[in-house]
Amino acid sequence: MVIEIVGVSKSFGRVKALSNVSFTVRNGEVVGYVGLNGAGKTTTIRIAVGVLPPDSGNVFIDGYSVVKEKKNASRLVGWVPELPIFESDFRALDYFTYLAGYYGYSASDARRIGKELLEKLGLGDALKKKLSEYSQGMRKRFALAVSLIGDPPNFVFDEVLNGLDPQGIAFFRNLAIEFRKQNKAVLFSSHILSEVEGIADRVVFIHKGRIVGDYSMEYIRQQAQPAIELALTTVDGKVLKLLEKHGEPVVVSEKRVLLRKPISDSSQIVVELVTAGVGVLEVKKHEKHLEDFFFELIRKAEGG
Ligand SMILES: Nc1ncnc2c1ncn2[C@@H]1O[C@H](COP(=O)(O)OP(=O)(O)OP(=O)(O)O)[C@@H](O)[C@H]1O
Questions:
Q1: Domain assignment present for 82
Q2: Mean pLDDT across 115-144
Q3: Is the same domain home to 143 and 11?
Q4: Is 43 in the pocket of ligand 1 (CB under 6 A)?
Q5: What is the CATH number of the domain that holds 156?
Q6: Are 163 and 141 within 8 A, CB to CB?
Q7: What region does 277 belong to: left with phi over 0, alpha with psi -120 to 50, or beta?
Q8: Which of 172, 191, 221 lies at the terminal end of a domain, its last residue?
Q9: Phi, psi (rounded to 5 degrees) for 148
Q10: Is 74 helix (H, G, I), strand (E, B) or coil?
Q11: Are 65 and 197 in the same domain?
Q12: CA-CA distance, 299 to 226, in Å (whole number)?
């Protein structure tokens, strides 16, 4: 229902992995946790699920502290680690059935649910394979199935999309829709913003152990719209009125306008401007990609 990360810091020797990290994943929210390799995502996640103690700060899962009430907190959160490790002598479906037994499922129910889930995750042909023979990506998918057994109210997934094929990604996307409906709080990490796009409602960005941004996906998409930058001989009310027919003009400087969300071709706009007696000094197309938003945050964080 709610995952609250409050002022968490963690160092490994001289490496400061996390500095005062705080954010909340609320009820019914699916939050992407995006950062470059080594930014601190895995460290945050391991602390959030109680397998790594923070140096300072705390994480609360539905109000239970992972530091002081670890047993209660961990019961309420399902997770998929970055590199899942299992008792590898077991065959996949047998191991799933064994684990589900802990949650009170009968062996026949557990096998039925396990088969269904593993098939959906593209492991239908590998139900009888030993986990030791599973590839890293297959282990990831198996771990995702296992995390769903107890139907916990909160989830934390570490790079879960990494290792899923298109079918697996579609499965995860649908899962996210279900989680939202069921009011669960879901945090999932990725180092690729465009990968979380169709899934997350919000994105928290981490860079060098610090949170550098927290935005709704809607806002990020808006910012990442393409635009046409125009340098003109004059920028006045008449010019803006003309441009409004073609998008959302924003005056950048005395003679520069950024036409956001353009709906017409730049050549058509230039013709209209020239016909109206406005000189066009420069036309620049901004093909803004989602990742640019992420890199801009990093640049700002670096003081550039
Ligand atoms: N057990 C450890 N011992 C020493 N340093 C560590 C340990 N775990 C993490 N680090 C360091 O802490 C920093 C953050 O690592 P972390 O694994 O949390 O990043 P990440 O964002 O998950 O990256 P990746 O996507 O590569 O997994 C890195 O500098 C890493 O080298």
A1: yes
A2: 93
A3: yes
A4: yes
A5: 3.40.50.300
A6: yes
A7: left
A8: 221
A9: -85, -15
A10: helix
A11: yes
A12: 20
Average confidence score pLDDT of the chain: 93
Residues 143 and 233 in one domain: no
The protein residue whose alpha carbon is closest to atom 8 in ligand 1 is 43
Ligand 1: which residue has its CA nearest to atom 23?
A: 38
Same-domain status, 33 and 162: yes
* In a domain? residue 296: no
Residues 251 and 210 in one domain: no
Supply the pLDDT for residue 18. Answer: 98
Token pair 């198996």 is found at 142
Q: Which pLDDT score is estimated for 225?
A: 79
Domains in the chain, number: 2
Spatial distance between the Cα atoms of 109 and 113, rounded to a whole number of angstroms: 6
298 domain-assigned: no
Q: What is the mean pLDDT of residues 86-94?
A: 88
Average pLDDT of span 201-211: 97
pLDDT at 162: 86
Mean pLDDT in residue range 213-237: 91
- Give the range of the structural domain holding residue 246, as residue numbers without chain letter: 225-287
Residue nearest to atom 24 of ligand 1 (CA): 37
Same domain, 125 and 260: no
- The interface pTM score, or ipTM, of the predicted complex is 0.95
Structure tokens at 117: 């889930």
Task: Give the C-alpha distances (Å, rounded to integers) separating 87 from 7, 144, 281.
Answer: 35, 16, 67
- Pair (190, 62) in one structural domain: yes
**At residue 51, does pLDDT exceed 70?**
yes
Query: Taking Cα atoms as reference points, which of 245, 248, 180, 252 lies closest to residue 217?
Result: 180
Instruction: Taking residues 116-126, report their average pLDDT.
Output: 93
Residue of 10, 14, 15 to test ligand 1 pocket, by largest number of atoms within 8 Å of CB: 15
What residues contact residue 39 under an 8 Å CB cut-off, 6+ apart?
Answer: 191, 206, 207, 208, 209
Length of the chain: 304
Same domain, 35 and 114: yes
Question: At which of 205, 221, 237 does a domain end?
Answer: 221
Q: What is the pLDDT of residue 304?
A: 65
